[in-house]
Amino acid sequence: MVTGHAVTSSWVPGADGSGFGADHLPYGVFSVDGGAPRAGVRIGGYVLDLAGSLGEPMFAQRTLNPFLARGRATWTAVRERVTALVTDPARRSDTEPHLVPLGRTTAHLPIDVADYVDFYASLEHATNLGRILRPDEEPLKPNWRHLPVGYHGRAGTVVVSGTPVRRPSGQRRPPRGPAAGPTFGRRLPPDATPAYGPSTRLDIEAELGFVVGAPSRLGTSVPTRSLSEHVFGVALVNDWSARDIQAWEYVPLGPFLGKSFATSMAAWITPLDALPRVPGRPQDPAPPPYLARADDWGLDLTLEIRLNGEVVSRPPYAGMYWTPDQFLAHLTSNGAALRTGDLYASGTVSGPEPGERGSLIEITWNGADPLKLTDGGTRTFLEDGDTVAITATTPTGLTLAEVAGTITG
Fold first, then answer.
1. Which of 76, 137, 285, 344 has the fewest CB atoms nearer than 10 Å to its CB?
2. Environment class of 286 (CB within 10 Å of its CB; exposed 0-12, middle 13-18, buried 19+)
3. Does residue 79 sit in helix, strand or coil?
4. Per-residue model confidence as pLDDT tens digits over 181-190
């Protein structure tokens, strides 16, 4: 196993053991009291103002894109400088004035999202949805084990964690009984007419997003071995999904309005250098050569999904079938160029056990088995006022910044 790099403890009060210690140092964009947004690093319960502490103009910006565009050598050098600032007691007097209590800050979307791509990389999730939605067919489509299936989402509706999510409206298939749900691809009865209105099957998708820093040239593919040269880090993502809208619209071109209304992203991006890595899940059949793994890019993370404060699932990321180096190789295999600020996500993270499912459509088996909450209530899909928060932890003690959102009518 290859783990994240442990470092000495930090002098920052409360940082050690917080999940946001000196071995983590995630980057984001923040403001204080309505001031101009600028870049910072989260350390314990504080934000280190990078423009002030490092004196670099690229951090006095409303987005991390100028920093991300500099590439791996700059990312490594800045991480080393920041680590020294928060671990060396001799630097404390100069650095402490640039620490801002997290509670005083407002977090902003950390990047200008150039493009957004969503994959479908969990074998368990894909199998569960196949069994739910196509019960008379094989759960997996013939291409699923040969390439990382994905689609292009809408970059303009990626929002920072905490942004309210308005329930979307769209065309929906008429209901087929109390527990009936989307049955993708089947014909409507001759007398049935699709209805237009608010989604009644609003769902979550607990995912891990990958943030591209260094771009690539149009017409040039990026090999799996080059992941760390282009991808800066990761952030948790909730790709909200209107299952009823999705069911009616997705044939034959795939997800559209049922997905594009909102995708929430955590405010703090964890650098790749901080993450514990494990070998990727074995693949059968072996993928084609351009998707062959050159390094271990399985990530040892356990996600936690909370609905109105109650933990409802803990999906494990390490068991994902396709890994981020393969995502990158595949999405550029036709010569498509990477741009600074590209975001690509893993798709729903689900494990083999019922308590490890990353979406409500799986947790409730499309509404047939409602989720029972400790307050006596139940859920099949999300109701107005529901708040969903997703976090993740590593065996090395890191806590990824949460991604959260509340549904409004």
1. 285
2. exposed
3. helix
4. 444 444 556 5
Alpha carbon separation from 271 to 135, 148, 341, 365 (Å, rounded): 41, 23, 14, 35
Rounded to an integer, the average pLDDT of 35-58 is: 97
Q: Look-up: residue for tokens 């957004």? A: 116
Backbone angles phi, psi at 105, to 5 degrees: -100, 155
Given the residues 5, 108, 125, 152, the one annotated as active site: 125
In terms of C-beta density within 10 A (0-12 exposed, 13-18 middle, 19 or more buried), how is residue 99 classed?
buried
pTM of the model: 0.94
Q: Write the DSSP symbol of residue 164.
A: -
CA nearest to 205, candidates 331, 358, 353, 307:
358
Matching residue, tokens 């509404």: 367
Alpha-helix runs per DSSP H in 196-352: 227-230, 243-249, 257-260, 324-331
Q: Which domains does the chain have, with CATH numbers?
A: 27-108 (2.30.30.230), 116-408 (3.90.850.10)
277 Cβ contact partners less than 8 Å away, ≥ 6 residues apart: 1, 2, 3, 295, 296, 297, 298, 299, 300
Give residue 48's identity as a one-letter amino acid code: L
What is the predicted pLDDT for the residue at 7? Answer: 55
Q: What is the DSSP letter of 88?
A: -
What count of other Cβ atoms lies within 10 Å of the Cβ of residue 375?
A: 9
Distance CA 240, CA 238 (A): 6
Tens digit of each residue's pLDDT (9 = 90 or more) over 383-400: 999 999 999 999 999 999
What pLDDT, in 10s, does the model give residues 322-337? 999 999 999 999 999 9
Is 125 annotated as catalytic? yes
Task: In whole angstroms, give the CA distance from residue 386 to residue 151.
Answer: 27
Between CA 141 and CA 143 the distance in angstroms is 6
The values of phi and psi at residue 351, to 5°, are -110, -175
